[in-house]
């Protein structure tokens, strides 16, 4: 079982990198970005970002 991440907990390096990529406007929908999408989902679960799916993606 994975530990529950609190919203106010420090970001790990991967989450910070994903936030920087999103800030730069990068699209993470490409299949090679699976790990980045996992981090984005963790950030979403913490209430730090909103993820929308356009066209089923």
Number of helices: 2
Give the low-confidence spans: none
Coarse shape:
globular
SS-derived structural category: mainly alpha
DSSP strand tally: 0
Distance between the termini: 28 Å
Order of helices and strands: HH
Mean pLDDT: 84
Helix content: 40-55%
Strand percentage lies at under 5%
The radius of gyration computed from the alpha-carbon positions, rounded to a whole number of angstroms, is 12 Å
Largest sheet: none
How would you portray this structure in words?
The protein has 57 residues and is mainly α. The chain has a domain at 13-45. Helix content is 40%, strand content 0%. The chain has helices spanning 13-23, 34-45. The chain is globular and about 30 Å long. It starts with 12 loop residues before the first helix and ends in a 12-residue tail after the last helix.
Topology:
Blueprint: H1 13-23, H2 34-45
Quick synopsis:
The protein is an all-alpha fold and 57 residues long.
Which characteristics define this entry?
single chain; 57 residues; 2 helices; globular
């Amino acid at each position: 079982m994975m530990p529950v991440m609190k919203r106010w907990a420090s970001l790990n390096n991967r989450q910070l990198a994903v936030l920087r990529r999103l800030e730069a406007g990068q699209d993470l929908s490409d299949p090679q970005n699976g790990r980045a999408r996992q981090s984005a989902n963790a950030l979403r679960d913490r209430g730090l970002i909103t993820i929308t799916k356009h066209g089923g993606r």
